[in-house]
């Protein structure tokens, strides 16, 4: 009798385990690879997951993303101001993001349009260690965090910051079209900032180029 009960319990545990594995696999497989999304998907709901490789903010508060996943597919994701204002986390370049939305076509380009803030999940990527940035990374997107040790105007309205973190230091170049479109006048030495952009070389020195004011954020007091 006791052996029967043990056998039944073992069988029940096995069945529960199989059910959990099934639903876990189903949940994982419910992600649609971006590379497979084509015009046949227009009007359908999909769930995608990938990394933010491009991000621009409109003056009215809309966000426009380019998201790439492990299938090497890239797709546009517009997040309108009403939804953006309700997000629990600020989306940044190189963040990992999961989105449920409807596939639409706009100006001949496919996009995934989320319908509400709850359809967007964000996992912030860790800033790259400044001291490990090297010339082999030229042309790569990088997110850094450090303290402004110097700020100066260059050219016709451009800004050049020097950012330091531990033993690493790098220049952050902000072109005039970016510095003029964002409220960057409040930046000053001693602030801890997070910046995302492309690594480039200028006069044999590495620097990070910020291409949208949204990709530069003051995050607090100096970071020792």
From TrEMBL:
InterPro entries on file: NA-bd_OB-fold, NA-bd_OB_tRNA
KW Transmembrane helix (keyword) present: yes
Keywords: Membrane, Transmembrane, Transmembrane helix
One annotated GO molecular function: nucleic acid binding
Occurrences of domain OB (ranges): 46-118
Keyword Ion transport applies: no
Residues annotated as transmembrane: 6-24
Pfam families from the UniProt entry: tRNA_anti-codon
Protein name as it appears in the record: OB domain-containing protein
Native species: candidate division MSBL1 archaeon SCGC-AAA259A05
């Amino acid at each position: 009798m006791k052996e029967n009960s043990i056998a039944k319990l073992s069988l029940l545990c096995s069945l529960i385990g199989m059910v959990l594995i099934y639903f876990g696999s189903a949940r994982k497989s419910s992600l649609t690879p971006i590379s497979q999304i084509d015009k046949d998907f227009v009007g359908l709901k999909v769930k995608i997951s990938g990394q933010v490789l491009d991000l621009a903010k409109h003056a009215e508060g809309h966000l426009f993303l380019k998201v790439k996943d492990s299938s090497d597919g890239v797709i546009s994701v517009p997040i309108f101001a009403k939804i953006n204002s309700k997000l629990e986390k600020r989306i940044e370049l190189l963040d990992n993001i999961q989105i449920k939305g409807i596939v639409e076509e706009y100006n001949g380009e496919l996009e995934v349009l989320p319908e509400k803030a709850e359809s967007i999940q964000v996992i912030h990527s860790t800033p790259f260690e400044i001291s490990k940035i090297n010339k082999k990374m030229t042309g790569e997107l990088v997110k850094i965090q450090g303290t402004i040790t110097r700020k100066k105007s260059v050219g016709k309205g451009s800004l050049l910051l020097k950012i330091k973190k531990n033993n690493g230091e790098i220049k952050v170049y902000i072109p005039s079209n970016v510095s003029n479109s964002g409220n960057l006048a409040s930046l000053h030495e001693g602030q801890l900032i997070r910046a995302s952009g492309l690594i480039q070389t200028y006069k044999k020195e590495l620097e990070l180029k910020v291409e949208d004011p949204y990709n530069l954020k003051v995050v607090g007091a100096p970071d020792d």
